[in-house]
TrEMBL record:
Keywords: Ribonucleoprotein, Ribosomal protein. InterPro entries: Ribosomal_bL35 (IPR001706), Ribosomal_bL35-like (IPR021137), Ribosomal_bL35_sf (IPR037229). GO terms for cellular component: cytosolic large ribosomal subunit. SUPFAM superfamilies: L35p-like. One of its GO terms (biological process) is translation. The keyword Ribosomal protein applies. GO terms for molecular function: structural constituent of ribosome. It comes from Epidermidibacterium keratini. This is Large ribosomal subunit protein bL35.
């Protein structure tokens, strides 16, 4: 049986923490900050844990 390949597009966007959770960066944090409010930019800071509903599907793409 051939091995499951990692989906490289997903691997660039999601990483697995030590406890096995999946984390990702929030969207809308790349450019055009002039028209985004400070409140909105702060809210989008940091990383977000993926929901349990998505975790199984995404782990399959990551070959984990």
């Amino acid at each position: 049986m051939p091995k499951q390949k990692t989906h490289k597009g997903t691997a660039k966007r999601v990483r697995v923490t030590g406890s096995g959770k999946l984390v990702r960066e929030r969207s809308n944090r790349q450019h055009k900050f002039e028209y985004k409010t400070s409140k909105r930019k702060r809210r989008l800071d940091g990383i977000e844990v993926l929901s349990p509903a998505d975790t199984k599907r995404i782990k399959k793409l990551l070959a984990k």
